[in-house]
Amino acid sequence: MATYEHRLAENEDNPSIVERIEVRPWRLGGKSHQEFVVGGGSNFDASGNILVEIIYSVNDVQIFYTRNFIHHIDYGLPVLEDDDWIEKFRNGERDGYGFGDMLPETSIFFQREKQPYKDANNEDQFHINYSLEISADTGAIFGKAGPGQRSIEIKIKHISIEDGIEFMRQLTEEIDSLSLEKHPDPADIPSGSSDWPFARLVNQKAYDKIAMNYSEDYFSESPLTEIFDAWLKDIPTGGHILDVGCGHGQPVIARLLEKGYTVSGADLSPKMLEKAKDRFPNVSFVNQLASEMTYESEFDGACSLSSLLYLDPIDLSHSLYRIYHALKPNGFLFLHAYDLHPRWRGEPYQVDIKEWMWVWTYGMDEAVQALEEHGYFKVLKAQDVTPEEEKHAGIERWYNGAKEWYEEHIKQFPASPYPAPDINKAPRLSYKYGIIAQRRAKEA
Ligand SMILES: C[S@@+](CC[C@H](N)C(=O)[O-])C[C@H]1O[C@@H](n2cnc3c(N)ncnc32)[C@H](O)[C@@H]1O
């Protein structure tokens, strides 16, 4: 985490004040062939974007927190590697450097500002100030305003050149390490420092609203049922299983109870839990985010279906870490999700199940990486569980749509070199997957 800290020394009457601005970058996953979508626009290659946490605190109490993107991180930018840039900044050949050259996005710049004044002899002079400026484009992400129309800006003025350069050096190093697939390890992050009321409340509101009508029918699908039951085979009969993001518990908790397990559930939505408690009065439930669960080595197994793999990379990482703690060493985890749109990543604030939510999507490979990257889990099995009929129906839908588009296109541009769609060459369409993983024995 890149940190700038300003300390007002204590005196006889006042204890000291520590003001801190922190920027914590996270990699988003995504591949170069995927588009990155944000704020209604889509461009860039999805692998070149990062998510940042921006945290402003006084005396270790957060007074401001948000998440936003930096787009278009080009890992070869001179600012990342070339000390010459810093030298040019120091000697006045350049007046600033930083990240963020596109909209909508976060920009982070360290700059020299010259304020003109007349001295006693009426000669032109300059005051030189150094400032660190962080600007998060919120409009395009949350408010659906145009790029650059809404932003939250934090400006730290009058900082020393050395402090500013050091902040930028730390940030550069962190962004650079993301390019090597090194993401923040949740064990190193102070507890609670990624809490974000926005994502929590917007999702809670949505899930509360859909609680009455939400229904899943997982076990009518044989590939999903097979992998779910394969996960259970390794969990001792009567063992204790935690369902994370359990919703109202139907059909997953019902199946676990039928098979003789003891079950506990955790969920963000009080309304989902009201229904779950009515249905399963002997199951214990907690109304918590996965990322704030405090269980320690209590469960033989844990599962999460259609819940965790829709969290953004920050919440997913913290949640997996809390599940690691909740499981006994060598305990087994089952995850299930859809990769809803394999052709793009981005747009975390979107309408999902007809409600605004803060959500993300992972491919199976990305989910596997999130589980394994810090050594907390070993993936035993990862499998596409889309039923064959659903795959065929998906391809047919894609083909019909593509054919319709093509026929219109060729009418307008008869000489177009664009090839007609081929049903045998369908792109990767949305698919469902299941993952069985085992908690590694190591202590965090
Ligand atoms: C799509 S529903 C799935 C419910 C259930 N697992 C199922 O498959 O039927 C997602 C559930 O995850 C819960 N949820 C979303 N984010 C969560 C989080 N960060 N921590 C805990 N629960 C969460 C929601 O409240 C909702 O009940």
Describe the fold and architecture:
The chain has 11 helices and 20 strands. The protein has 444 residues and is α/β, with parallel strands linked by helices. It has 2 domains: 2-184, no CATH class; 205-388 and 429-439, Rossmann fold (3-Layer(aba) Sandwich), CATH 3.40.50. The strands form 5 sheets. A 7-stranded mixed sheet has the order 13-12-11-14-15-20-19, with helices on both faces. Strand 7 (96-99) and strand 8 (107-118) form a beta hairpin. The radius of gyration is 25 Å and the shape is globular. The model has no long low-confidence stretch (mean pLDDT 91). The structure holds S-adenosylmethionine. S-adenosylmethionine binds at residues 203, 207, 216, 245-247, 252, 266-269, 272, 289-290, 305-307, 311, 315.
Q: Please state the overall shape, judged from the principal axes of the Cα atoms.
A: globular
Overall average residue pLDDT: 91
Give the number of helices: 11
- Structural class, by secondary structure, is alpha/beta
Based on DSSP secondary structure assignment, what is the total number of beta strands? 20
Ends distance: 20 Å
Relevant CATH superfamily of the largest domain: Vaccinia Virus protein VP39
Which percent bin holds the helix content?
25-40%
| Annotated CATH architecture of the largest domain | 3-Layer(aba) Sandwich
Biggest sheet layout: 7 strands, mixed
Strand sequence of the main sheet, in spatial order? 13-12-11-14-15-20-19
CATH class label of the largest domain: Alpha Beta
Low-confidence stretches: none
Distinct small molecules bound, one entry per kind: S-adenosylmethionine
